[in-house]
Amino acid sequence: MARPINDWNARQYDDFAEQRQQAAIDLVAAIPPLRGTTEPAKITDLGCGSGLSTCLLTERWPDAAVTGIDKSPDMLARAAERVPQAKFQQDDIANFKATQPQELIFANASLHWLPDHRKLFTHLAQQLSFGGILAVQMPNTLSEPSHQLMSELALRPAFAEHLSNLKSDREDLLTPMDYYDALAPVCDEIKLWETHYHHVLDGSKDILRWFASTGLKPYLDMLPEGERPDFEKQYIDAIALHYPSTSDGKVLLRLPRFFVIARRRA
């Protein structure tokens, strides 16, 4: 079956699988044991994508019932290939409501696409069993040159006709205090931190490739096919000014990521 034009492209996303997976590895490593037991039995991977995070969950907790949820058919097909022992469900994670309390809700690089995080984080914490863990990682990139340049390019006359109506639910992340206050009525043992990853890429074209399946995707989807190459070229030219080459010709893509781990209060 052909992939719908606006669907996510799992193979393209996996071009940088090892580097994309590092934040999920770090998040899994930071998850504490459940109270009274060492392993969660019911785990939801919220916005599982191509299964890069799901496979980490099944490796750490092989006896758990792990369910990955994602909106993209292409991502889910790739995830099912990668992690056949997990279950996968096609749904919009904005509508997530657990059929039974979960001992771990894991959301790696997915919740930043959703609005109204104060309500969202309180809601997710309420889907946990008592003592269950919410573990979240979100890119904090809207103020980075990589994303500022996307918005600036969209205003140029050559593209504004097609991109002027582009709307995204993506908002700036809340402050750490806001996330704490959203979770504190329901959770304790709340941990918040930010890590800045510096991904070593071969050049400016790789920065385009990195974001073509994520942040740039809404822009590329709205452009006529014949105008995408020009948009991509102008993006690469602009990127090169903000991400200079290293001594050996590589570039460093700085990518801040914000982490939250909270335990539901018993």
Task: Describe it.
The chain is α/β, with parallel strands linked by helices and 266 residues long. It has a domain at 10-140 and 168-200 and 253-264: Vaccinia Virus protein VP39 (Rossmann fold, 3-Layer(aba) Sandwich), CATH 3.40.50. It is 38% helix and 24% strand. It has helices at residues 10-13, 17-30, 52-60, 73-82, 117-126, 145-154, 157-163, 176-183, 204-212, 217-222, 228-242, and strands at 42-46, 65-70, 87-90, 102-108, 128-139, 187-201, 251-264. It is globular and about 60 Å long.
Question: Can you summarize this structure?
Answer:
With 266 residues, the chain is an alpha/beta fold. The protein contains 11 helices and 7 strands. The longest helix has 15 residues, at 228-242.
Keywords:
alpha/beta, Rossmann fold, 11 helices, 38% helix, disordered N terminus, Trans-aconitate 2-methyltransferase, trans-aconitate 2-methyltransferase activity
Fraction of residues in helix: 25-40%
The level 1 CATH classification of the domain at 10-140 and 168-200 and 253-264 is Alpha Beta
Averaged pLDDT: 93
Shape: globular
Uncertain parts:
1-5
User: Which CATH architecture of the domain at 10-140 and 168-200 and 253-264 is right?
Assistant: 3-Layer(aba) Sandwich
User: How many β-strands, per DSSP?
Assistant: 7
SSE class? alpha/beta
And the CATH topology of the domain at 10-140 and 168-200 and 253-264?
A: Rossmann fold
Give the terminus-to-terminus CA distance.
47 Å
The proportion of residues in beta strands is 15-25%
Q: Major beta sheet, specifics? A: 7 strands, mixed
Say what oligomer this is: single chain
N-to-C order of helices and strands: HHEHEHEEHEHHHEHHHE
Rg value: 19 Å
Widest β-sheet, arrangement of strands: 3-2-1-4-5-7-6
What's the CATH superfamily of the domain at 10-140 and 168-200 and 253-264, by name? Vaccinia Virus protein VP39
Count of helix runs: 11
Organism: Congregibacter brevis
Keywords: Methyltransferase, Transferase
EC number: 2.1.1.144
Enzyme class: transferase
